[in-house]
Hints:
Low-confidence stretches: none
Helix content: 55-70%
Structural class: mainly alpha
Protein name: PspC domain-containing protein
Keywords: Membrane, Transmembrane, Transmembrane helix
Number of strands: 0
Oligomer: single chain
Transmembrane segments: 17-40
Distance between the termini: 39 Å
Amino acid sequence: xxxxxxxxxxxxxPVRLFLFLALLGVAAGLLWYVVFPxxxxxxxxxxxW
Length: 49
């Protein structure tokens, strides 16, 4: 999967590395601020058995 993404990114190695890290940051931010807050009330982590 990462190899396919790496081959599709334009530019040389420095540009690809920057774009890859930017995409990684966007994905992490999306998970942190959108997916995890939406999922937190639905996962019974703090509830006793």
